[in-house]
Amino acid sequence: MFKPHATVACVVQAEGHLLIVEETIRGVATWNQPAGHLEANETLLQAASRELQEETGIQAQPHSFLGVQQWTAPDATPFLRFLFALDLPERQPAIPQDDDIDRCWWLPPEQIINADNLRSPLVAESVRIWQSGVRYPLSLLQAF
């Protein structure tokens, strides 16, 4: 039976920089947006806020929805990634609460897009979507 992994990710912006989390995957430092799996009994918005807090220590809610990304990883794992945007008035200290995250960085968008250590192609594509100015209201997402 086909069961894609449902994940959430947040493009967090402050002062023209985007928040990136760094984690070590198979001995290599990789960059990603604050992101993770949807857990039982939580909404997509709750998952996005939880992952942001766990991975960066920042407590905030997404402001808008950027879209859904479908991707199959090189190991054939299928993903559906729900992408959110969040604008902060200023760069906040980001301190990982999750042991899997090594550190957080506030970086210019182009540095992320051009990096060779991204967790997946979804990271750069998420920045491009954010740069395009596309924003959808959170009301598109309904939880029952």
Describe it.
The protein is an alpha+beta fold and 144 residues long. The chain has a single domain, classed as Nucleoside Triphosphate Pyrophosphohydrolase, CATH 3.90.79.10. It contains three helices and seven strands. Strands 1, 2, 3, 4, 5, 6 and 7 form a seven-stranded mixed sheet that branches. The model has no long low-confidence stretch (mean pLDDT 97).
Please give the alpha-carbon distance between the first and last residues.
24 Å
User: What characterizes the major β-sheet?
Assistant: 7 strands, mixed
**What is the residue-mean pLDDT, rounded to a whole number?**
97
Task: Tally the helices.
Answer: 3
CATH class reads Alpha Beta
Would you tell me which CATH topology applies?
Nucleoside Triphosphate Pyrophosphohydrolase
pLDDT < 50 runs, ≥5 residues: none
Helix/strand order, N-terminal first? EEEEHEEEHH
Proportion of helical residues: 10-25%
Spatial shape: globular
